[in-house]
């Protein structure tokens, strides 16, 4: 079975037929040696997880921002400076919009949704309990507003993945958070979108096998 990420699938679904073939070809035949993928907002995400897991005061996140900015000040490469500063900004926006959330962090192994012969990694950034309700949360730290379909696709993928495990999480508790703007997108189940996701996975497999 083919294994792809949520990001790969959302990118694939947004492209034309010709662009889809190019995307799949680049994945199947990468021009450079594979490198270990870097989670761009890892510092922000790990800080947010610790903040909730240890039930810390918001000053913890504020201090994390200061530490990251200091790292950026002494970083030699501009790319590193930019990466660090974007993580600092991400935490700032989380403080502004979501630091009042009272989450109990729950253990979550990697999960995936399956559409015929394609496995899509669908692990949330946060698996939490809030007011006795279990939630799956995907955090989007980008300054660019997500395309309309992205939150819907991501939440559907997480929903299908948790269904396979029998977690029984309510659709309203599977949420895509736009951290930069403070917007929340709970899942609204659409059979049409699920059909489109399945068709896209079938198309991905067909292209993969044909090149």
Précis, in short:
With 211 residues, the chain is of the alpha/beta class. The chain has helices spanning 6-13, 17-28, 42-53, 58-74, 78-98, 149-165, 191-210; strands spanning 2-5, 104-105, 112-115, 118-121, 126-130, 133-140, 174-178, 183-186.
Rounded to the nearest angstrom, the distance between the terminal CA atoms is 16 Å
Radius of gyration: 18 Å
Quick check: average pLDDT? 95
How many structural domains can be distinguished in the coordinates? 2
What is the β-strand count? 8
| Major beta-sheet overview | 5 strands, mixed
Q: Which strand order do you get reading across the main beta sheet? A: 2-5-6-7-8
Low-confidence stretches: none
Compile the SSE list and pairings.
Layout: E1 2-5, H1 6-13, H2 17-28, H3 42-53, H4 58-74, H5 78-98, E2 104-105, E3 112-115, E4 118-121, E5 126-130, E6 133-140, H6 149-165, E7 174-178, E8 183-186, H7 191-210
Parallel strand pairs: 1-4, 6-7
Antiparallel strand pairs: 2-5, 3-4, 5-6, 7-8
Describe this structure as you would to a colleague.
By secondary structure, the chain is an alpha/beta fold. It folds into 2 domains: 134 residues, no CATH class; 57 residues, no CATH class. 51% of the residues lie in helices and 17% in strands. The protein contains 7 helices and 8 strands. The strands form 2 sheets. A 5-stranded mixed beta sheet has the order 2-5-6-7-8, sandwiched between helices. A 3-stranded mixed beta sheet has the order 1-4-3. Helix 6 links the parallel strand 6 and strand 7.
